[in-house]
Every structure is written in structure tokens, then in C-alpha cells.
Design goal:
Function: Functions as part of axonemal radial spoke complexes that play an important part in the motility of sperm and cilia.
Distance between the termini: 31 Å
CATH architecture of the largest domain: Single Sheet
Keywords: Cell projection, Cilium, Cytoplasm, Cytoskeleton, Flagellum, Meiosis, Repeat
Subcellular location: Cytoplasm, Cytoskeleton, Flagellum axoneme
Organism: Stylophora pistillata (Smooth cauliflower coral)
Number of domains: 2
CATH topology of the largest domain: Histone H3 K4-specific methyltransferase SET7/9 N-terminal domain
Strand content: over 45%
Radius of gyration: 24 Å
Helix content: under 10%
Strand order of the largest sheet: 1-2-3-4-5-6-7-8-9-10-11-12-13-14-15-16
CATH class of the largest domain: Mainly Beta
Structural class: mainly beta
Shape: elongated
Protein name: Radial spoke head 1 homolog
């Protein structure tokens, strides 16, 4: 995910050229166009000299925003095309991704759900394009955290996540008609450096410990 290019140039900074409606104070007011000192352009609604209402802001680096503004900031519903080719469609609050939205990543992955201050935060679904696996559940500051579910092609895992890792009690449900119960326990492993001068690193790895297997009714698999 890239936020490069998401910072817009303030129109009262430096000289800008454009045309459109103005009020008695010669402020942009109504529909207008402007080319800013950065080379960015804006076309849309103004109110008292600020972008306000619906508009299109094109960045010199190729990024683009189409959507709502309030007092010069992206605020409301909009779509942002980022320079790296990714795209976000959803809510903005004062120039930042907030509320419900969908992010389309360059590698084909998608996330649909809650956002807070540019990060995945709340409830949402992340789909991994390479495998088709989906994560459905809780997010905290951009990471899987809390109760969630990993859905694979022929089985799924339901349990807890912490700081983007599997941790704690959970269960695997297989389409063949059984469940495996257990828990993920974090284990420390020492990773040697590439050379004698490199320091050893302690790596935490989640290891599954099964406590039992039960049969389930096929009707509840879905």
C-alpha cells in the first residue's frame, strides 16, 4: 500500500492559474479549475477559496483522487488511484482513509472493511490473490488482531490472532467432516547470523498443538 502522492498542495501556497466562479471577495466559489505550483491540477467545486464539494485532483506523479471535499480536504466518499497502481474506494476523513472502504493492491490482493487513520482497523475481509485464501475478522492498526477466521479451499481455521500472528485456542474445520481442536503457542527459535560477526536473532514462531478431533455434521460446513 502506498500513500505517496496523497498529500495535496494547498491552493493558497504560491501562484496558481485557473478559471471559474468567484464571490465578492474574489475567492473561488462554485465550479472552477486550477493548476497549482506543484504541477497538480484540480477541477471541481469550491467554497470560499477552498476545495469543497465534488472534484477531481490530478497529481503530477500520475495519482488521482475523484470524490468529495470539505474545506480543502478529502472528506466523504471518494476513489484514490495511487502512483504504484493500487486503488482505494471508500470513506475519507480529513485526507485520510477512515470508515468503510475497499483497497485493491498491486499484487491482486483486496481488503474490504473498516479503516481508521489510513490503516485497516475494525472488522474486514482480506483476500490473498495468489492462494484465494481469505481472512475474515478483527484488525488493529493494520494487523490481524483478535477473533478471526482463515478460509482456505477445503478447510478453515477459527481462532485468535495477536499482532498479525496465530495465537491461542482455536480449531480447524475440514470439509471432509471433522474438526481439530487445539492452540497455537509461540516458541522462540535462535536464528544464526550469516557471518561470525552477525548477532543471533530470536524469532517467535507459532506452533500448533492439537488437543483432539471431533466429527461434525456435513450440513454445517460452508
Amino acid at each position: 500500500m502506498s500513500d505517496i502522492g496523497s498529500e495535496e498542495f494547498e491552493e493558497d501556497e504560491g501562484i496558481n492559474l485557473g478559471d471559474g466562479d468567484r464571490n465578492e471577495k474574489e475567492e473561488r466559489h462554485g465550479y472552477g479549475k486550477a493548476t497549482l505550483p506543484s504541477g497538480d491540477t484540480y477541477e471541481g467545486q469550491y467554497e470560499h477559496g477552498k476545495r469543497h464539494g465534488n472534484g477531481t485532483y490530478r497529481f503530477k506523479n500520475g495519482a488521482k483522487y475523484v470524490g468529495e471535499y470539505v474545506k480543502g480536504k478529502k472528506h466523504g466518499q471518494g476513489t484514490f488511484w495511487y502512483p504504484d497502481g493500487s486503488r482505494y474506494e471508500g470513506g475519507f476523513v480529513e485526507d485520510r482513509r477512515n470508515g468503510h472502504g475497499i483497497y485493491y493492491y498491486v499484487n491482486g490482493d483486496t481488503y474490504e472493511g473498516d479503516w481508521y487513520e489510513h490503516q485497516r482497523h475494525g472488522q474486514g475481509v482480506y483476500t490473498y490473490s495468489a492462494t484465494g485464501t481469505k481472512y475474515k475478522g478483527s484488525w488493529v492498526h493494520g494487523k490481524r488482531d483478535g477473533t478471526g477466521e482463515l478460509v482456505h479451499s477445503n478447510h478453515r481455521y477459527m481462532g485468535n490472532f495477536l499482532d498479525d500472528n496465530l495465537q491461542g485456542v482455536g480449531k480447524y474445520r475440514f470439509d471432509i467432516g471433522c474438526e481439530q481442536h487445539g492452540e497455537y503457542v509461540l516458541e522462540e527459535k535462535i536464528q544464526e547470523g550469516d557471518t561470525e560477526e552477525d548477532e543471533q536473532l530470536t524469532v517467535l514462531t507459532a506452533k500448533w498443538k492439537c488437543s483432539g478431533v471431533t466429527e461434525i455434521e456435513p450440513a454445517i460446513i460452508g
